[in-house]
Write a structure and sequence with these properties.
Two copies of one chain form a homodimer.
Chain A lengths: L2 H6 L1 H12 L2 E2 H5 L6 H13 L3 E6 L2 E6 L1 H14 L2 H14 L7
Antiparallel strand pairs in A: 1-3, 2-3
The structure holds a DNA duplex.
GO molecular function, one term (chains A, B): DNA binding
Protein name (chains A, B): Winged helix-turn-helix transcriptional regulator
Pfam families (chains A, B): HTH_5
Chain lengths: 104, 104
DNA sequence: CCAATACGTTAGTCGTCACTAACCTATTCG
DNA sequence: CGAATAGGTTAGTGACGACTAACGTATTGG
């Protein structure tokens, strides 16, 4: 699974945001969710597989953190998707609300 | 399915890009893929369900086009995901390759 | 009018995702 | 050492996504 699809799942989006604010253990993350620790663990493994997070073993815990390079790949993937033509259409949506064109 | 997840699927990413460049019929789109027209049609229905595309019936064809407002929602969703903290980590990945910090 | 065209629709398959419950392993603390 | 803790692992389930093949329906051109 590529980084884009991996990051798209709602729970994983939140996990990435949490880890971006600071590295955490699995239990810390699981405490923020209604799903079980096992489910969170599996999301983390999937994210690790996509190169987006990594685990550092410290004593009996595993500190998960975001991998900056993986995040850069994700950003690149999103940018590659978001073509200029798509961007132009968003600008047109703006123009609809505020009907000022570039050359009126 | 929210717009983010809907847009994440690789084939649908390409479909959105194609439609962004110009509106097309289902057959036109399907010609660009190895999967069947039926599969493409189902992707289009899902994208329509997510508010990202719309179909205009013209004779016996259906011209699909991107919905600018839906695209705006998608962009907003992506922006909401991509927090400043995630952005900062990407900047740090840069700093690793070019070790110039903001305050050296 | 009838055959061809453009699509949607449906049924069915296959794979995979998200999840829980239960179990196993490693580590630490008393 | 033995209980408790942290977390990976596995099996099993329900659901869903992606896909194909076959069929149904509207539209149009000869």
């Amino acid at each position: 699974m590529d980084a884009f699809s991996a990051a798209a799942e709602p729970n994983r989006r939140r996990i990435l945001q949490l880890l971006a604010s600071e590295p955490r253990t699995v239990s810390d993350i699981a405490a923020e969710f209604t799903v079980t620790r096992s489910a969170v663990s599996q999301h983390l493994l999937l994210l690790a597989d996509a190169g987006l997070v990594t685990a550092e073993k410290v004593g009996r815990q595993r500190i998960y953190r975001v991998v900056p390079d993986g995040l850069r790949s994700l950003q690149a993937e999103i940018d590659r998707f978001w073509t200029d033509e798509l961007d132009l259409l968003v600008a047109d949506a703006h123009a609809h609300a505020h009907p000022n064109r570039s050359n009126p």
